[in-house]
Write a structure and sequence with these properties.
By secondary structure, the chain is an alpha+beta fold. The chain is 31% helix and 19% strand. The protein contains 15 helices and 17 strands. Helix 3 packs across helix 11, helix 8 runs antiparallel to helix 10 and helix 12 packs antiparallel against helix 13. 51% of the residues are buried.
Length: 561
C-alpha cells in the first residue's frame, strides 16, 4: 500500500480533502436539491493551533522506546470517526487526548504495559485503525453516556481514580503469520489492516472476504473486538462467522481459545472476546477462516415504485434461502443522495457469487420474486465467469450497461470522505443502524421517519432521513439510516445529541437493537444496557473483574461501572 499521510482530524488520507471550489459545489447542491439554507465554507484548524492538554504521566520504563507524548501522535489517537469526532477534530479541540501513545512490538510488550498500568492506575485504551463511530477509542470520563457527555465530558483521569490514560496502538502486531491451505485458515496479527491481509493471502489464492466500510483503514483486532459487519448481506454477515480462535492479553494473563472448526464443550469462549471492545484485554492475533475468490458472479439492479413492495420482495428473497452476497435495498432518498437514481425509484441491488458453479439461476429466481412485487430490471442481469484466469469478462450484459452494484460499492467506500467535506460546509451528517424482525419493521420505519425527521427539523430547521438495508436475514432486516441537516456552527453537538437521543428512544420502543454492527462504545452504552438482561450485564462485569481486576481496560466503553 502507498505510504500516504492520514488526516489528523478526518477520515482517511489527508490529500483526499476536497479544495474550496469542490466544497462550494457540494454546498450549492445541498442548497438546491435538499433546500438547505446557504452553507458556510469552513476550514479545519491547523494542528499547531489545536488544543491538546499536557501529558500527566511519564512513559513506563518497560516500554520507554515504544511510548510517546508527542502532540500529533496524541491528537491522532483522541477520536474515532463519528460525526462528533469529526466536528471536534475539525475545530482542533483534542481535549480528551491520551497522555501517551504506546506502540508495542510484541505480545510481551503488551503484557508488560498492562502490568505497569495496573500498578500505576493508568487506563489503557486499545487502538486499531481508529475508525470507531461510537466513541470506542476516545479517552473520555465515565460520567454518563456519550450521547449526553460528548463534547463536554471529562478527560479520563481528571478527578477520578486514574492517573492518566495510554492509547495502545496495535499497528506493529500485524501480518499474516501462517496459512493452512488445506483447512483454508490463516493466523493473522490483530494489527493487520484489511488490504494488508488480502494482499498477503493473495499469494495463496485465498482471501478473508470481510469488507466493512472501514476496510482500508481498520484492523482485524478492531473487527473482532467490535463484531464488525462486512460485505455479505446474508450468511457471512459479521466477522464472527470467520473467527476460529482468538488470542488476547489481559491484565490477569493470556487467553487463547482452541483452534477447531466447532465445539460443543460449554459456552463458546470466543464469544465473550468477540464484541468485548477492549474492556477485558487486548486481542493480539486470531486464526481466521479464509476462502478463494469466487469466479462466478451474477448481478442486477431492480427498480421499485413502491417501497413496501420492495421490502416484501427483499424479505421473500431472504426467506427463499437464495443467499445473495449482495442484497442492498436503497430507498429513493438514499438512491438520490448516492446519485444512483433520480427518478424516485427505490433500488434493490442484487449480487450472487459461486465458487464451483455459475449462479445465474439463483439471480433469475430472485428477479422473478421481484417481478411478482412490481420490480423491474431495465438493464437485465450481468453474469461473469473468471475461471479463465484473465480476470473474466461479462456475459449477458455489457460493461456500459447499468452497473449499479459497482457504482454502489464505489459510493459505499467513498462515503466517509464525503463526511469530511460535509462537516466543512456546516452539515450535520450521521448514521445509525439496527436490526428488527420483518413483522415489526413497518412500524419501526414509520416511527423513525416521523419522529427522527421531526427531531431533525426541530433541532436544525430542515433535513432528510434516508434508509437502506445493509444485511437481510430470514427473520428480519438490518436497516441503516443516514441523516443530513444544516448545522449551526458552535451548536452542532447539541443538535446531534437531540437527534441521536430521539433515534435511540424509538429503537428501544420498538424492540430493535441499538446497533447491528457499529458496536457499543460509549455512544450506545446506555442503549445496550437497556436491551441486555441485567443478570447478563452483571455476568459480564464479573468477567471484567476477573480479567481486569483494577478496571484499567477501556473504562467507559461497553459497560458502565
Amino acid at each position: 500500500m502507498a505510504d500516504r499521510e492520514r488526516s489528523v482530524w478526518g477520515w482517511g488520507d489527508a490529500d483526499r480533502f476536497p479544495d474550496a471550489d469542490e466544497r462550494r459545489a457540494l454546498a450549492r447542491r445541498l442548497e438546491t436539491e435538499l433546500g438547505f439554507p446557504e452553507r458556510p465554507l469552513l476550514e479545519p484548524t491547523p494542528l499547531a493551533e489545536a488544543t491538546i492538554p499536557a501529558s500527566r504521566i511519564d512513559p513506563p520504563a518497560v516500554l520507554a522506546d515504544g511510548c510517546t507524548a508527542d502532540r500529533e501522535a496524541r491528537a491522532r489517537h483522541t477520536y474515532g470517526k463519528g460525526y462528533p469526532d469529526l466536528v471536534r477534530g475539525f475545530r482542533g479541540a483534542f481535549d480528551p487526548a491520551p497522555d501517551l501513545v504506546a506502540v508495542p512490538e510484541s505480545e510481551g510488550d503488551v503484557a508488560d504495559l498492562l502490568a505497569w498500568a495496573t500498578d500505576e492506575r493508568v487506563a489503557v485504551v486499545p487502538f486499531g485503525g481508529g475508525t470507531s463511530v461510537v466513541g470506542g477509542v476516545e479517552p473520555t470520563g465515565d460520567e454518563g453516556s456519550m450521547a449526553d457527555s460528548v463534547g463536554g465530558g471529562g478527560r479520563l483521569g481528571d478527578g477520578d481514580e486514574f492517573a492518566g490514560v495510554v492509547s495502545l496502538d496495535l499497528r506493529n502486531l500485524d501480518g499474516v503469520r501462517d496459512v493452512d491451505e488445506i483447512s483454508r485458515r490463516a493466523r493473522i496479527g490483530a494489527g493487520a489492516l484489511g488490504p494488508e491481509i488480502n494482499d498477503a493471502l493473495a499469494d495463496h489464492d485465498l482471501q478473508l472476504r470481510h469488507y466493512p466500510q472501514s476496510y482500508e483503514f481498520s484492523t482485524l483486532g478492531g473487527w473482532i473486538a467490535t463484531r464488525a459487519g462486512g460485505h455479505f448481506a446474508t450468511v457471512y454477515t459479521h466477522i464472527d462467522d470467520f473467527v476460529e480462535n482468538v488470542r488476547a492479553v489481559t491484565p490477569a494473563g493470556t487467553l487463547e481459545t482452541l483452534d477447531v472448526p466447532a465445539s460443543g464443550a460449554g459456552p463458546d469462549p470466543n464469544r465473550f472476546l468477540l464484541g468485548s471492545e477492549g474492556s477485558f484485554g487486548v486481542i493480539t492475533e486470531a486464526w481466521m477462516r479464509v476462502q478463494p475468490r469466487p469466479p462466478y458472479r451474477s448481478r442486477a439492479t431492480v427498480r421499485f415504485a413502491d417501497f413496501d413492495e420492495a421490502v416484501a420482495a427483499t424479505r421473500e428473497i431472504a426467506q427463499a434461502r437464495l443467499y445473495p452476497a449482495n442484497c442492498r435495498l436503497l430507498d429513493a432518498t438514499e438512491a438520490m443522495i448516492n446519485e444512483l437514481a433520480t427518478d424516485g425509484s427505490h433500488l434493490l441491488v442484487l449480487g450472487f457469487e459461486g465458487l464451483d458453479a455459475p449462479v445465474a439461476d439463483d439471480l433469475e429466481r430472485a428477479l422473478a420474486i421481484c417481478a411478482d412485487r412490481g420490480g423491474r430490471s431495465p438493464a437485465g442481469p450481468t453474469h461473469e465467469d473468471r475461471t479463465g484466469g484473465d480476470g473474466g469478462g461479462a456475459a449477458g450484459g455489457e460493461r456500459d450497461r447499468e452497473d449499479t452494484e459497482g457504482e454502489w460499492r464505489s459510493s459505499f467506500f467513498e462515503a466517509p470522505y464525503l463526511f469530511n467535506a460535509l462537516v466543512s460546509v456546516g452539515v450535520l451528517v450521521d448514521t445509525f443502524e439496527t436490526a428488527v424482525t420483518w413483522d415489526r419493521f413497518p412500524d419501526l420505519h414509520a416511527a423513525l421517519q416521523q419522529e427522527v425527521t421531526a427531531a431533525v427539523r426541530e433541532a436544525c430547521g430542515a433535513g432528510v432521513l434516508s434508509c437502506r438495508f445493509t444485511h437481510v436475514y430470514p427473520d428480519g432486516p438490518a436497516p441503516y439510516y443516514t441523516l443530513l441537516a444544516p448545522a449551526e456552527p458552535g451548536r452542532e453537538l447539541e443538535q446531534w445529541r437531540a437527534i441521536k437521543r430521539t433515534a435511540s428512544d424509538v429503537l428501544a420502543a420498538h424492540d430493535a437493537t441499538i446497533t447491528h454492527h457499529h458496536a457499543v462504545g460509549r455512544v450506545h452504552r446506555e442503549g445496550y444496557e437497556r436491551e441486555a438482561p441485567d443478570a447478563y450485564l452483571d455476568a459480564l462485569r464479573s468477567t471484567k473483574r476477573t480479567l481486569d481486576p483494577a478496571g484499567i481496560m477501556n473504562p467507559g466503553a461497553l459497560l458502565s461501572t
